[in-house]
Amino acid sequence: MGGLRTQLEAQDCTLLVLVPEPLARARRLARLFRVRFPVLADPRRTAFRSFGYGRRWGFVQQSGTALVERDGTLSYLRRSSNPGGALDLAELMRAVEGRPH
Q1: Do residues 17 and 33 make contact, with C-beta atoms less than 8 angstroms apart?
Q2: How far is CA 65 from CA 24, 84, in A?
Q3: Fewest CB atoms within 10 A around its CB: which of 19, 30, 64, 90?
Q4: What residues pair up with 40 in beta bridges, in sequence order?
């Protein structure tokens, strides 16, 4: 993930991890997965829902990737009900590199 951080910083971007859990759980997850980016807790799921993420079939938590510009414009969004499909790095980098600066 260090390479990803360098690539994003070169494009004036920062990755934030949003966890729809209380702060203590978000901290545990960050330690468990050795996340090297800021981890934000969203226990009320307010931000999470604003991206359209929710539960599917009543129990599968959606996740994904969003690219939000400094002015608040959403320029890329990926949703997945499969945790492994939440991040498509090549697709994200194309979106990052193709956005207006």
Answers
A1: no
A2: 22, 12
A3: 90
A4: 18
Amino acid sitting at position 59: F
Cβ neighbour number for residue 90 with a 10 Å cutoff: 7
Please give the Cα distance from 1 to 7 (Å, whole number): 10
19-34: per-residue pLDDT in tens? 888 999 999 988 998 8
* Tokens found for residue 40: 């934000």
Q: Is pTM, for the whole model, over 0.70?
A: yes
Q: Tokens 């980098």 map to which residue?
A: 93
Task: Fill in the amino acid letter for 32.
Answer: L
